[in-house]
Amino acid sequence: MTDIHLVDVTLRDGNQSLWGAVGVKTSTVQRMAPLINRVGYHTAEVATSTLLATAVRYHREDPWQRLDAMRAGAPDTRLGFLTTGKRFISFSRTPANLFQLAFELLRRHGVTRMWVIDPMHDMKSAMETARMAKRAGFEEVVGGICYTVSPVHTDAYFQEKVAQFDHCDAIDSIYLKDPAGLLTPERLRTLVPSLRKGLQHKLINELHTHCNTGQAPLTLLAGADLGMTHLHCALPPLAEGASHTSALQLVANLRARGHRVNVDVEAIQRASEALQREATLRNLPVGRPAVYDESYYRNTIPGGVLSTTRRQLSEMGKAHLMPAVIEEAQQVRADLGWPIVVTPFAQYIVTQAALNVMAGERYKQISDEVVDMLLGDWGAMPGPVDPQLLDRAQQLPRARNRQGRQEAAPLSLAALRERFGRGISDEDLLLRSLMPGDQVDAMVNERSSRERARSHGGSLGLRELAGALSDRQRPLSLSLQFGGATLTLRGSQTADNGSI
């Protein structure tokens, strides 16, 4: 039997899969971190660059303060970060100097474990990313092989790709990432031995799979039977559906099968109950077990992209187009040469599908990101590209303007400081370099107003008040008088659940 270590993905992948990447706030992290810390997880995945951006864009919250809140609330739990491809925050290529700065900041704010995948399986690029992470001080770097189904993604393809990690000193271990939940127990039993044949020095011992087809709970058990020691799971209500297997049910199933899992089940239950209360109070969706749908193996769209696309179409008043967009995405992927439907390509594929559906004509408008893909910005496609689509893209101004033009060298960090202000912090410098200025301005103004209120006893909104009362480092006391009655609220230095 196998000694199993659980990886919690609730606040990152669960949020992204079921809450459109915007449901978790800093206050959520402050409440949940101490509860998560008690479970005994091997690692808690806390962010991707996408979630750093959504903290700024949708909540006007400082994402670095959110990481600090997690580190303060869960001091005994490793914090993990997922990076995908050659991008950070933006959906275009990120200069190497900003990438390195981002990794150094993540390490500075308490993140010690990193998962590295390249969505085009450019393994050389992934290994360079791993080296950057090690230079930044990451203690553990896990290289990923990303699973999908297509005519070109065969066992031989995956084995050749994973073998390239075997001699990379910057990669400590390897994990199998199934972002769309396509794996079945039967497929895992053939795939994992095949991958291991390509490895002599590295272990592939970690499994990440979603519940989109309802098979993830059984697939994880099959992984444990195969000796995979690190399994990803989530807390209800951010489990099931397009998210991950419920931690509670996974532990019960593993133990029933005879595997050993050293976690506190009561702590899992308490954390889940706290998260459920938040979902109820904020009217956020709750994950439910998925009904098996064979057609899902045709579109392979990850849960996070599905929920985000559904939200975006609703905001545009076009929610009724969702089924047509999903159907069109299948053709777009085939035309592009079967890229894996994972960030950022999942977003590119679905966006192009939406453009096709809304225009009523295929490729009447081609997004800049798809043009860049076809021009090789992310490497060679796994399979053949539709020649008519490639020819059409090459005739567009974005492609013609690039012909014969030498790419401008990225600005140095010193030059960026001159642009944004010499006194700017590294954290704000990175955000301003990669995000729209008005969004960062709104975040900075909100942060400043909160800091002024806390420092000078100014007025607090309900959100700021709740955050101040739950701050264990600087507990706040507040007294309200109504005639002869006095109500006193005190933030507790010892409370570990963020309650008042």
Number of helices: 22
The H-level CATH homologous superfamily of the largest domain, spelled out, is Aldolase class I
Q: Estimate the mean pLDDT confidence.
A: 90
Q: If classified by CATH, what would the architecture of the largest domain be?
A: Alpha-Beta Barrel
* Helical/strand content category: alpha/beta
SS elements, strand count: 11
Please report the distance between the alpha carbons of the first and last residues.
43 Å
**Spatial order of strands in the largest sheet:** 1-2-3-4-5-6-7-8
Name of the CATH class of the largest domain: Alpha Beta
Instruction: Work out the strand percent.
Output: 5-15%
Compute the gyration radius: what is it? 23 Å
Q: What do we call the CATH topology of the largest domain?
A: TIM Barrel
Word description of this protein:
With 500 residues, this protein is α/β, with parallel strands linked by helices. It has 3 domains: 3-281, Aldolase class I (TIM Barrel); 296-402, Orthogonal Bundle (Cyclin A, domain 1); 413-490, no CATH class. It has helices at residues 10-18, 26-37, 49-59, 63-73, 96-108, 123-135, 155-163, 185-197, 216-225, 247-257, 265-281, 296-299, 303-315, 322-335, 345-359, 368-374, 387-394, 397-402, 413-420, 426-434, 437-456, 462-469, and strands spanning 3-8, 43-48, 78-84, 113-117, 140-146, 173-178, 204-209, 230-233, 260-261, 477-482, 485-490. The strands form 2 sheets. Strands 1-2-3-4-5-6-7-8 form an 8-stranded parallel β-barrel, surrounded by 8 helices. A two-stranded antiparallel sheet has the order 10-11. Strand 7 (204-209), helix 9 and strand 8 (230-233) form a beta-alpha-beta unit. Helix 7 packs across helix 8. The longest helix is centred in the last third of the chain and has 20 residues, at 437-456. The protein is globular and about 75 Å long.
